[in-house]
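Sample pair:
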Amino acid sequence: MSSNARQARFSQRSFEQAVTWFVALQSQDCDAARRAEFQRWLDKHASHPLAYTEAEKLWANLDPLKSGELPDLQAARRAGPQKVSVRTGLSVLLAAALAAGWWLDYRAAPVGYITSVGQRQSISLADGSSIELNAVSRLSVKLSWCRREITLLEGEALFNAAHETLRPFTVQANGLQIRDIGTRFTVRSRADAVRVAVLEGEVSLKPEHDWLGQPLTAGHSRQLDGNKQLQAIETSDADNEAGWVDGRLAFEHTPLAEVVAELERHHPVRFVFADPALARQTLSGSFDIADLQPFLRAVETMLPVRAVRKKQTIVISGRR
């Protein structure tokens, strides 16, 4: 094909003719005269080779089905060359495309991602979406013709979903389905709860035993508790919710037990409370993820506790 032909644009009519020719050439009755006629059509206009290439590409994407028994295609192959119409050609490729969509959706294998202590990962998806995976987290991604499905198995992630009307973007996390409606949102999955915060746009939240989803809009968060019940909607701050992406942890009246659990995700240490009651003390503030020592000094300043580090263990005890 010449460079001019490659650069040419083809009309809808040219593409319909190309589809018709493609199907006609599959017929067992397609003889030399018919092929010569096809060649004359191909040479008639610079756009025709390009249109035919597009028809071939469509069929090339259906490789898993080429050995299958598609009734419309079998009928086209048995039909005489004069009996193949534009409508028949388009219906054949449409039937093949629909069948291929189901087959490729069934065959699509999930891709897994995992991070360890102190590690974060940026993931770019083929549909234009992106994921920021926090430390000590696991998820799998399944992209197919029909759906975009992510399963957050453990930990936390920030999702920036590219909106597609016909192919939903969903996140499954511990009994909760989060369906994107063109947005950015975070999901944190723990053994006893799943928390979703919407930074931009809107999502739909649907516990696994519910029929309908419930909307959650930007600036709000909601939690699914250990009994699989959605709790009340709360307001949230986008900068604080996604602060870990930029290496910052923000807390607001957060129990100390949750604070140290978060720090254990980013540092190879273990916190121990000398008195279990200390774990219920609350803390507010913003801290650098990478530097643990300023946090320990801040805790001793803000709360009536002492933090003593012994190798990889940090003991939190009451101040005497």
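The chain is about 30% helix and 30% strand.
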